[in-house]
Model the fold of this input.
Amino acid sequence: MTRPGGKSRGASATEATRTAPAPARPPAAGAGDPHFSPRRLVVKIGSALLVDDDSGDVRRAWLDALADDVAALRAAGTDVLIVSSGAIAVGRRHLGLTGRAIKLEEKQAAAATGQIRLAHAYQETLARHAITVAQILLTPEDTEERRRHLNARATIDQLLKLGAVPVINENDTVATEEIRFGDNDRLAARVAQMVSADTLVLLSDIDGLYTADPRKAADASRIAVVNEVTPEIEAMGGDAPTGYSSGGMVTKLAAAKIALAAGCRMAITFGKRMNPLATLAAGAPATWFLPSATPLSARKRWIAGHVAPAGAIVADAGAVAALGRGKSLLPAGVTRVDGRFERGDLIRILGPDGREVARGLSAYAAADVARIMGRRSAEIATVLGYRGRDEVIHRDDLVMSA
Ligand code: GLU
Done:
């Protein structure tokens, strides 16, 4: 599998207007999927693909083939993150919780035993390609609250830089009904948003969104491209199925909304076949949700939006000019700190004349900024006693004010 080098990036503008149903079209042989050119990919794997219904064991041959796809993508320079379900489906057998619907506490207990087995299966299969696996268990707050979001993002960035493949699931054992995602479709979309992924693939038991339920309506057709999740599109998703894990099309459309708002393209495609990612890259049927923004511009909107700044930093003229050229804010350029903010809080950056020039997420708490201001980044460790970020606000976490 090769990565088409981002050639198709931006091509969505030409297809951008089609939200109406289009007939499913078989891929031309060898044509490849014009939408699949990921630099940073989040793949969501559902329990039904990964876990054998009868035995409750991980479907190893399928997982091995998926790992082969992941290794090929990594070799082509793509960052890959896996959001995997299956903890509950694997764990419940080992606790004898079968043959009936299970309660929330039982699901949580099942997840605690299943997650170990799941992680082990990923570790073994990716070790075949000498790839290290990192397990990350998240709750909704970890992706939404800015401070925790910044921490999780930094950790995941670091893992990707070090060549590991993060395998992510919801922290099922601690979350209660009201505060859990409950479905990994939305978790995967939040992760994609958090790490500024450009592509999210939901491997599913169906090859896309249909105009009507294809099991019931013979004339239902697959929609190839969606640019906006309109009420009309939502109506096609139908109702959520009953069951203990998967959320059906409803949660996939909720995920699509999050992904589109985050500037991340998303595909729903059939995942049960072997090598589902290579197959998608080769042009397998899918529904693609194509955003109009890029992950970076969407992230900047998210940073600027909806929260009151917790404080301010005054920067010198040189630092203000550097920000205008798209640089980060370094401690050397800071002359004053106002307010009590924590790491990850949104703060204002003011020029020497007191005018706001930018807003951003601070990588340090106010007290620490006060100690490192005016210093070179190399001195941070000596002053604070720990080695933090070189920048007070990284340029990706910063938005210029109008
Ligand atoms: N987090 C759950 C598990 O690992 C599954 C949630 C889902 O399938 O959407 O079992």
About this structure: The pocket of glutamic acid is lined by residues 46-47, 85-89, 111, 169-170, 172, 183-184, 245-246 (CB under 6 Å). The chain is about 35% helix and 15% strand. The longest strand covers residues 40-45.
